[in-house]
Design goal:
About 75% of the residues lie in helices and about 0% in strands. The radius of gyration is 18 Å and the shape is elongated. Helix 2 packs across helix 4 and helix 3 crosses helix 4. By secondary structure, the protein is mainly α.
Length: about 100
Amino acid sequence: MRLTREQIAERSEELADYAESFDPDRAEQMPIGEYRLWRVVRNRSADEALMLDAIAEARGDGISIDRIAEIVGVSADAARILCGEAVDRRRSPESKSASRSLGI
C-alpha cells in the first residue's frame, strides 16, 4: 500500500501519541473482530486513494467508464464521479509531489 507523505506523517504522529499515552496497567485486550474492523476503517482512506490512482491509470489506458463501473461495482454515474476524482487527484500538485518523493 502506497501512502502519501501526509498519511505517513499522520500515522507516525498517531503512533507516537499512542506510545506516549500507553499504560500497561490499564491495557485491555481487544477482541479480534474489533481489531479487524479498526484496521479496515483505518486503511480505507489509503485503499480509496489506491483505487482512484488505478481508475486514473485505467482511463489513461482507454478503459471505458462503463467497464470501470462494472469492475468497481457501481453505477455508470458513480463511476463518472470516481473518474473525475481520479483525474483531479492526478492533476493535484500535492499528489504529484508526494508520489515523486515516495518513488511512486
